[in-house]
């Protein structure tokens, strides 16, 4: 799969090979840059799973973290109406920022993280109504 990655205002085209099992649930991360492509990645082996007390999660109603990192900025509030590709929050890992945008249109039901929180790969960040 070919992707375009933006670093310091320069676009780089890279080729990525997905090595995880295709039968695993998919998470969606949509880069904020219009010239970038949609990244769909299978969760890594051993990725955190929802706790048994949470019950099953409707993947169409959540946004998961595409990386492990720290929340540096939150751009939405509970109750806010959003559209696909609206910026939800910004994560930082290894001094690089990653924009996390909405995969769906809807209303913010819950923010599961706050500014400064550390997050894990595939952690539920935002829930939608």
Q: How would you describe what is shown here?
A:
By secondary structure, the protein is an all-beta fold. It has a single domain (2-44, 58-128), classed as Beta Barrel (OB fold (Dihydrolipoamide Acetyltransferase, E2P)), CATH 2.40.50. The protein is built from no helices and twelve strands. Strand 8 (87-93) and strand 9 form a beta hairpin. The N and C termini lie far apart (32 Å). 19% of the residues are buried.
Count of extended strands = 12
For the record, the CATH class is Mainly Beta
Largest sheet at a glance?
Answer: 4 strands, antiparallel
**How many separate domains?**
1
Named CATH topology: OB fold (Dihydrolipoamide Acetyltransferase, E2P)
Order of helices and strands: EEEEEEEEEEEE
Task: Tell me what portion of residues adopts beta-strand conformation.
Answer: 35-45%
Q: Enumerate the strands of the largest sheet in spatial order, edge to edge or round the barrel.
A: 5-12-10-7
User: Between the first and last Cα atoms, what is the distance in angstroms?
Assistant: 32 Å
The CATH homologous superfamily: RNA polymerase II/Efflux pump adaptor protein, barrel-sandwich hybrid domain
Q: Uncertain segments of ≥5 residues (pLDDT<50)?
A: 33-53
CATH 2nd-level architecture: Beta Barrel
Q: Calculate the mean pLDDT score and round it.
A: 79
Supply Rg. Answer: 14 Å
Q: What class do helices, strands and sheet pairing give?
A: mainly beta
Helix proportion of residues, in percent?
under 10%
| Number of helical stretches of at least 4 residues | 0
How would you sum up the global shape? globular
């Amino acid at each position: 799969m070919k992707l375009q990655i933006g670093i310091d205002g320069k676009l780089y085209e890279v080729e990525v090979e997905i090595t995880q099992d295709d039968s695993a649930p998919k998470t969606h991360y949509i880069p904020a840059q219009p010239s970038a492509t949609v990244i769909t990645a299978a969760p890594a082996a051993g990725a955190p799973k929802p706790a048994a007390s949470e019950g099953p999660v409707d993947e169409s109603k959540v946004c998961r973290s595409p990386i492990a990192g720290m929340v540096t900025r939150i751009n939405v509030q509970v109750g806010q109406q959003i559209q696909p590709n609206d910026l939800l929050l910004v994560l930082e890992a290894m001094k690089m920022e990653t924009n996390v945008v909405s995969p769906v249109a809807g209303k913010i039901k819950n923010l599961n993280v706050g500014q400064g929180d550390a997050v894990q790969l595939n952690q539920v960040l935002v829930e939608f109504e």
